[in-house]
Amino acid sequence: MIRISAFADEIAADLGEQIAVLLQEGIRHIDLRGAWGANVLDLTDAQITEARRQLDEAGVRVAAIGSPIGKVPIDSDFDQHLERFNQAVRLARVFEAPFIRIFSFYPPTDPASDADPATWRGDVLRRLTEMTARARAAGLTLVHENEKDIYGDTISRCVDLLTVVDDPSCGAALDPANFIQCGEEPFPAAYEALAPWIRYVHVKDARQDGTVTVAGEGLSNWPALLTRLRADGYDGVLSLEPHLAEAGRFSGYSGPERFRGASQALQDLLKAMDWQFE
C-alpha cells in the first residue's frame, strides 16, 4: 500500500496547524521541511523535541527530511555545507525518517566561471558521492529532486549523476512539474529514463507556461503515471508539494484551502483507479 505524505509547511508555519489539516485530509505522513517559520535544519533542540512530541501524539510519521541540501552554488564552501548535511542526518535519526531530500547544486556564483553544467559536473559528482557514503553509513537514503536550474534539472543529467554515484543509498525523487518547467516530458520520457532509481515521488503538476497546478490539471499525465507506477510495483510515498500560492527557492506555500484542493485531487485520482493508500 502506498503512502501519501506532504510538505505541510505549505499549509501554515505553525506545526500544530500543519498536523490538524493533515489529519483532516487523512494524511499521516509528513515531509518535514519547516516549522514555526524556520527551515528544518535550523530548528533549535527545543523545537526538535516539541516537533517530535506533537507528531508522535498525532500519530503522524516523518516520511522524509525535506532538506535544502544541495541548493547552494557549486563553488560555495563544501565543508560548511557538510555540517548542514550532518544535521539532516541527525534529524532523520531523531524523527526515524528513512529519506533525506537533496539537490545537485546551482551554477557557480563567480561571474568568471563557465555556466555550462559540464564544467562543474565533476564537483557535483564528488559532493554527491561523499554525501551518499555518509547516508549509507547512517542507514539512510538520499532522494535527489530534479529542481530547475540545478545540475540535475534535465533528464539526461539526472541519469548521469545517478549512474555515476551508482549507490542504492542515492535515488531519485521524481518531480513531474519540475521537468515541465525545464521543457522536459515527465511521462513517459522522464519516468522511463529514471525508473531504475525512483525511490520517491513529488505530487504537483504544471501547465505549458510553467504555472503550477494540482495533479491532473497540467501536462504531467498523472493518471498514466500513477497507472505505470502501480504496474511497476511502486509501494513508496506520494508526497504533496503543491506550490499553489508561492514557490520560493527554499520552500513553497499553498495555504490550508488550496492544500486541501491538491490533496483531494490526488486522492480522487487514486480512488478512481482503486489504488489503496494510507
Folded structure, characterized:
The chain is an alpha/beta fold. The chain has a single domain (3-272), classed as Divalent-metal-dependent TIM barrel enzymes (TIM Barrel, Alpha-Beta Barrel), CATH 3.20.20.150. It is built from nine helices and 14 strands. The chain has helices at 15-24, 45-58, 78-94, 117-137, 155-165, 176-181, 186-194, 222-231, 256-272, and strands at residues 3-6, 29-32, 34-35, 38-39, 61-65, 99-102, 141-145, 170-174, 198-203, 205-206, 212-213, 237-240, 246-247, 252-253. The strands form four sheets. An eight-stranded parallel beta sheet has the order 1-12-9-8-7-6-5-2, with helices on one face.
Computed over alpha carbons, the radius of gyration is 18 Å
Number of domains: 1
Strand order of the biggest β-sheet: 1-12-9-8-7-6-5-2
- Write down how many β-strands occur, each being a DSSP E stretch of 2 or more residues: 14
CATH architecture: Alpha-Beta Barrel
Model regions low in confidence, pLDDT < 50 over at least 5 residues: none
Strand content: 15-25%
- The termini sit apart by 7 Å
Q: Average pLDDT value?
A: 95
Q: How would a crystallographer describe the biggest sheet?
A: 8 strands, parallel
Order of helices and strands: EHEEEHEHEHEHEHHEEEHEEEH
What overall form do the CA principal axes indicate? globular
Q: Please, what is the oligomeric state?
A: single chain
Query: Any idea of the CATH topology?
Result: TIM Barrel
For CATH, the homologous superfamily is named as Divalent-metal-dependent TIM barrel enzymes
Structure class: alpha/beta
Reading off the top of the CATH hierarchy, the class is best stated as Alpha Beta
Fraction of residues in helix: 40-55%
Treating each run of at least 4 consecutive H or I residues as one helix, how many helices? 9
